[in-house]
Write a structure and sequence with these properties.
alpha/beta; 12 helices; 2 domains; about 40% helix
Amino acid sequence: MAKYLVTGGAGFFGGILKNKLLADGAEVVSIDLVPDTTKHPSLTSIHADIRDEESMRAIFAAHRLNAVFHIAAMLAHGKMSRDLLWTCNVDGTRVLAGCARQAGVKKLVFTSSNCLWASNMGRPVREDDPPAPAELYGESKLEGERLLHQFEDGLDVVILRCPTIIDSGRLGLLAILFEFIRENKTVWVVGSGANRYQFIYAGDLAQACLQSLDYAGSGTFNVGSDNVPSLRQCYEAVIEEAGSRSRVRSLPKAPTLAAMRLAHVLKISPLGPYHYRMIAEDFTFDTSRIRQAMGWKPTVTNSEMLALAYRYYAQNRENIMARENVSAHSKAAEMGILRLLKWIS
C-alpha cells in the first residue's frame, strides 16, 4: 500500500487531496498547524510545524513514504505577520525537501501560485515567463520554487502553478461575495467586468497531483480551467444559482483602484496589492504543457465551481460564521471597509 505525506492536510485543498488519496486506498500522513478532524483507519494526523527540522526528521524516519505533497502555505490574510508567512512558506519548504531527500523519498509535488505574477501580459502565461510577484505571498512561493530546484539532484520535484482553487467549501474572500449575493446586494465589478480571470477546480488539481506521481523527473506545470468567462458572467451565474435579486454593476476603474490602495495602506481592507492590481485585469495560464506531458485536462468551469462554493456557503452559513482555528480558506474573511460598500449597496 502506498503511503503519502500531505502538508496542510487539515486545510481546504490539502483536505480534499488527503481524502482523495484515502479513497483510492493509500495511507496518508497529514501534517498541519491546525487540528485535523478527519478520522480514517489509514490516516495518521500529526500536529507539527514543518519548520521544525527535528520533528520533520522524526516523522520521515517513522514512515516509509512514497511521495510528499507539499500543500501547506501561510496566506497574506488578516493579521498574519510577514515573518511568519515567509518562514513557513520558505524555511518550511527547505526543511521539508531536505528531510524528504535524506529519507530517500523519490517525489515531491509542490502547489505554487499564479501570484508569481501581478500584471496582465495580454496572453496566457507560460511556464517560461519570468515571474514578477507584487507582494510577500507571491515572493515566498517563488522563493519556495527556487529552493526546491536545489534538491532536484536527489529528489524529483513537480511544481504545479495554480490559480485560485475553488470547490464546495472554499470560503475566504469568496464568502464576502457570497454574503452580498445572499442578501440581494449589488455585486460590484471594477471597470466593465469583462476581464477573464482563471480558476482551478480542486478536484482537477487533485488529479494533477496524482498524475504528477507518474511523471518521470522534475518539471514545472501550469494548471487552470478551460473556456474562462468574464468575471461579470461568473457573478451573474452565481446570482442565478442563488435565486438572488442582486445585480452586477460597475465601479469606475481608476478611482476605485486608488481607493483600494489607500484602504490597504490604512489596513482597513482584506484586499492586498495582488487583488487591486488584478481585480480588473485578465489573467489565464497556458496549460498546454501539462496536457501534453501528463494527459491532464480540467473538467469544471469557473461558473460551475463558484456555484458549488456558493451552495455550500448557503447551506452551512451558521456553522461557517462560528468557525475558529481553521485554515484561512475554510472560514469567511473579515470584511473590513467592504462592509460599508455592502451597506450602501
